[in-house]
Design goal:
There is one protein chain. This protein folds into 2 domains: 136 residues, 3-Layer(aba) Sandwich (Rossmann fold), CATH 3.40.50.10860; 160 residues, NAD(P)-binding Rossmann-like Domain (Rossmann fold, 3-Layer(aba) Sandwich), CATH 3.40.50. The chain is built from 13 helices and 12 strands. Strands 1, 2, 3, 4, 5 and 6 form a 6-stranded mixed β-sheet that branches. A 6-stranded parallel β-sheet has the order 9-8-7-10-11-12, with helices on both faces. The structure holds 1,4-dihydronicotinamide adenine dinucleotide (NAI). The site of 1,4-dihydronicotinamide adenine dinucleotide has 25 residues, from helix 5 and helix 6. 1,4-dihydronicotinamide adenine dinucleotide (NAI) binds next to helix 5 and helix 6.
């Protein structure tokens, strides 16, 4: 595995590999930047096709965490942990304790929480052996509610910029993925008077959204071409491929899923088609904002107390409005502007100038 040669390597400060033969634990912790504080980022646990793919994921996701926290105004840096293997086979109390011991050994340079394959109950177990975790049931709790609220702030910015409107009434949204975040977004959009088209690979989630919100259900493979105003990806990353872009009928793409753009070219194609893209790491910052500011135990940049959570989450709306206007003024994509702003904040040069 050649970390330094990986296309995802971006002058990461530190990358640690951990293994524990007894429990089968194989972990990678990537620390992208601590320029603004302790590196914070979730722990992803899933089988990977190769160790290289796992390392690339850790590198890519930790960079996104640096950008996300910097743009959300948080006094933390960016990191991410990846556990390699099948959670249903490997996950046990011993396994999670072994992982927690490794996190503890890092001495606080990295603090973690839940992500794909790791729920709050798992983080509770990890927290039995290290204090360098957030989002436990005794702490700020389930971050997905705050992520959904943050997405709503982001959607307000999109609607204001793209449609010149201050409300959602009568606008049509396609919500792709009705999990912890997507269902919360759908619920709030419905309450705000929006019309919904939804898809999920879980029929029970779709049935619920149809029954509760009067949503129109479409097949998972068709949701991106739904006739809507805004496409809201809330499933897995990479759903906005170059091919998908050509079929999108929405005027904007804005949702919670991490790494929505399958490639920089997909972003460029969205811009070429005049479809507004809201950078995902700005849209989905609500979870980390709640984790860092919600407990009230920490202080912001310069030692100032954090504002109430509602206000902290509303930063997403203003940040996106700033990004959209600067993108328009400079004739560049919002993704590129967001990247430049984040890099300025953490004192780095942007890695991919071509990313659209
Ligand atoms: P989740 O696992 O609860 O929900 C994902 C949903 O997407 C599931 O219902 C799943 O069945 C569905 N899905 C999977 N493949 C699909 C497909 N091809 N088409 C349609 N639906 C599909 O995950 P969660 O927590 O709701 O997160 C959603 C996205 O938001 C993820 O990309 C995650 O990384 C991102 N995110 C979540 C945060 C959180 O606080 N939970 C914070 C920041 C980002």
């Amino acid at each position: 595995m050649h970390i330094w040669d990986s296309p995802e390597f971006d002058a990461h400060e530190q990358v640690c590999l951990f293994s524990d033969e007894r429990t089968g634990l194989k972990a990678i912790v990537a620390i992208h930047s601590t320029a603004l504080g302790t590196a914070a980022g979730g722990t992803r646990f899933k089988p990977y096709a190769s160790n290289g793919e796992a390392a690339d994921d850790a590198l890519r996701l930790s960079r996104a965490m640096s950008y996300k926290s910097a743009l959300a105004g948080l006094p933390v840096g960016g990191g991410k942990a990846v556990l390699v293997g099948d959670p249903s086979r490997l996950k046990s109390r011993d396994f999670l304790h072994a992982y927690g011991a490794f996190i503890d050994r890092l001495g606080g340079i990295f603090s973690t929480g839940e992500d794909v394959g790791m729920g709050m109950a798992d983080i509770d177990v990890v927290s039995e052996v290290t204090r360098f975790v957030g989002g436990t049931s005794a702490g700020t709790g389930d971050p997905s509610i705050h992520t959904a609220v943050g997405v709503m702030h982001g959607l307000e910015a999109v609607v204001a910029h793209r449609f010149g409107r201050a409300d959602f009434s009568g606008l049509r949204f396609a919500v792709q993925g009705l999990g912890a975040v997507g269902m919360g977004v759908a619920e709030r959009l419905h309450a705000a008077g929006a019309e919904l088209v939804v898809a999920d690979i879980r029929p029970d989630a779709v049935d619920l959204a149809v029954a509760r919100f009067g949503a129109e259900a479409v097949a998972a493979e068709d949701i991106h071409r739904a006739c809507v105003d805004i496409l809201c990806p809330c499933a897995l990353g990479g759903s906005v491929t170059e091919e998908a872009v050509d079929e999108i009928r929405a005027a904007a793409v804005a949702g919670a899923a991490n790494n929505q753009l399958a490639s920089p070219a997909a972003g460029e194609r969205l811009a070429a088609r005049g479809i507004l893209f809201a950078p995902d790491y700005v849209m989905n910052a609500g979870g980390i904002i709640s984790g860092i500011t919600g407990g009230g135990a920490r202080r912001g940049r310069g030692g100032a107390a954090f504002p109430p959570l509602d206000e902290s989450l509303a930063v997403i709306r203003q940040r996106l409005l700033d990004i959209f206007s600067r993108a328009e003024a400079e004739d560049r994509t919002p993704e590129l502007i967001a990247q430049h702003l984040a890099c300025e904040l953490i004192g780095r040069s942007p890695q991919r100038d071509s990313q659209g």
